[in-house]
Amino acid sequence: MMINRILCGAMAAAAAVVLAGPVAAAEPDLIFRKSTVWKMLTPDDKLATYGVDDPDVEGVACHFTVPERGGVSGMFGLAEEASDASLSCRQVGPIRFTTKFSQGDVVFRQSRSLFFKKTQIVRGCDAKRNVLVYLIYSDKLIEGSPKNSTSTVPIMPWGGDTPERCENYLK
Questions:
Q1: Is residue 34 part of a domain?
Q2: In this predicted structure, what is the pLDDT of residue 85?
Q3: Per-residue confidence at 2, pLDDT binned at 50, 70, 90?
Q4: I want to staple 169 with a disulfide (CB 3.0 to 4.6 A). Which of 29, 97, 133, 136 is the partner?
Q5: DSSP character for 159?
Q6: What keywords sit in the KW lines (predicted)?
Q7: Which value, to the nearest 10 degrees, does the dihedral of the CA atoms of residues 95, 60, 57, 84 take?
Q8: Is 24 within 8 Å of 32 (Cβ atoms)?
Q9: What is the pLDDT of residue 159?
Q10: What's the angle, vertex CA 53, arms to CA 43 and CA 70, rounded to 5?
Q11: Considering the entire predicted model, what is its pTM?
């Protein structure tokens, strides 16, 4: 019985790696962590803030905060992380598109549990307003999650450059 559980868990973890697909961006940069719940003998529960650059749009950076569980399960990487997340994206330089993209393309993806849960940042273009729209959400293969956060980046002139139009780079 215990061996069946271990084998099922190993197969599920392997399937999660295959189903998750390629990561759209490199690992995020940890900016800082802040403890939220003190635990005596194991790691504390924390909020962690990360930074990530859009791999297809130069000049845009996003920061997101997610909870990280402590305790024994968190210490061994077995805790299922909460779906909560917040997101803020900004223009940090001249915006240049490196490739065409589709509405909802993945900018960043990270596993949030051993079994099929991941957090994703996706990008869209509001062509009417010339604004990039970023959405962070957590999903689970079986039940999904409605928790999400949205951030927008109006494409503004930088220096003397005329701003690009995001609609020109939509597939």
A1: yes
A2: 84
A3: very low
A4: 97
A5: T
A6: Signal
A7: -150
A8: no
A9: 87
A10: 10
A11: 0.75
For residue 127, which amino acid is it? A
Residue 2 phi, psi dihedral angles, 5° rounding: -65, -40
Where residue 74 falls among pLDDT bands split at 50, 70, 90?
low
Q: Which pLDDT score is estimated for 86?
A: 92
Contacts of residue 158, defined as CB under 8 A and 6 or more positions apart, other chains included, come to 59, 91, 93, 94, 95
Q: Locate 2 and state its tokens.
A: 């215990």
Task: Flag whether 170 is in a domain.
Answer: no
For the chain, what is the domain count?
1
- Unique residue bearing structure tokens 């003190």: 38
Res 67: pLDDT:
85
In this predicted structure, what is the pLDDT of residue 37?
Answer: 64
125 band by pLDDT with thresholds 50, 70 and 90: very high
By the 10 Å C-beta count (0-12 exposed, 13-18 middle, 19+ buried), 30 is classed as exposed
CA–CA dist 124, 60 (Å, integer): 13
Q: How many CB atoms lie within 10 A of CB 130?
A: 17
Domain that holds residue 155: 29-163
